[in-house]
């Protein structure tokens, strides 16, 4: 059923865009066939790896398929908009207007052009985004403390070791005090992704590297990945916390497992367990991959929650739908009661929909400030 749903935009494009074009039939059939293959790229993923999340074929082909899939979706949207305008004109004038071929060429060029931009935005090394966070009762010694968040790297054939190495180099150049990774490191099992993840061992920060699992770790051998991430020098905060000290002053970095654990034989998220024993006076920064439980989390006295998972919604307009599935949170900074929530657009994203328009990837550096 999933693959049928993904084929519906293709059907709209074939019936309403390709068939009316003044082309010879073989040209129409060729274009329809190419776009049909692209619309079923997640099926190709499943065939190549057994999972819709992990394509195991060459990176250039993944990029081309995402480009064509994105163009198909945009073409379907533009064609539906064109048909809506035609319907309004028909109601006003009493007959449907003839659509010149030039109009279809314009929306075709627009769709393919935007798809090319979207894929390029998705696969690039993310730009820096700087965010200041004012925290009540932040100790003076932590005023100006810099924390770098990476999230949703989705290391895969689309985001391979060379991409990871470039991200690590840029991250280290930022010279943050602390680095956190809030889940979804990978798409693929350990034996396929080991070399792609290995560059993360070079991440460096004075106060260390802390991380939590995302939902995709549960799809590809949770225990294997937790052990491997730990071997790279990361401290995995699976319902645990760590205390960062500056003399007598302290802040707490806590982390919980992902909601994907429910129904599986892995530890469910346990915020109370993660905070057990944390110093009462220290501000708490929580790492939680998914943002949708933030309203409940805020009741626990958290100062700042860092999340990812949504990829920022990927495309303006689509982000509104993504927000509905994530408690209304999709991108950027939110005030949730007395807690601040930051939902990161992501360092990478899922290879099955590698398209960004208006929701750029980011390397996010937070500078903590004492709120007066």
Please specify the SSE layout and strand pairing.
Blueprint: H1 2-18, H2 25-39, H3 41-49, H4 59-93, H5 101-123, E1 128-136, E2 146-150, H6 161-173, E3 178-182, H7 190-197, E4 209-212, H8 215-219, H9 222-231, E5 235-236, E6 240-246, E7 249-255, H10 271-275, E8 284-287, H11 294-297, E9 304-307, H12 318-324, E10 332-336, E11 339-343, E12 363-371
Parallel strand pairs: 1-12, 2-3, 3-4, 4-5, 7-8, 8-9, 9-11
Antiparallel strand pairs: 2-12, 6-7, 10-11
Question: How would you portray this structure in words?
Answer:
The chain is α/β, with parallel strands linked by helices and 372 residues long. It folds into 2 domains: 2-123, no CATH class; 128-371, Metallo-dependent phosphatases (Purple Acid Phosphatase, chain A, domain 2, 4-Layer Sandwich). The protein is built from 12 helices and 12 strands. It has a 6-stranded mixed beta sheet, with helices on one face. A 6-stranded mixed beta sheet has the order 6-7-8-9-11-10. α1 packs across α4, α2 crosses α4 and α4 runs antiparallel to α5. The longest helix is centred in the first third of the chain and has 35 residues, at 59-93. The protein is elongated. The mean pLDDT is 96.
- How many discrete structural domains? 2
Cα-atom radius of gyration? 23 Å
Distance between the termini: 55 Å
Shape: elongated
Q: How confident overall, as mean pLDDT?
A: 96
CATH superfamily of the largest domain: Metallo-dependent phosphatases
Approximately how much helix is present in the residues?
A: 40-55%
Uncertain stretches of 5 or more adjacent residues: none
CATH topology of the largest domain: Purple Acid Phosphatase, chain A, domain 2
Walk across the major sheet and give the strand order. Answer: 1-12-2-3-4-5
Query: At the first level of CATH, what is the class of the largest domain?
Result: Alpha Beta
Q: Could you give the count of β-strands?
A: 12
DSSP strand content: 15-25%
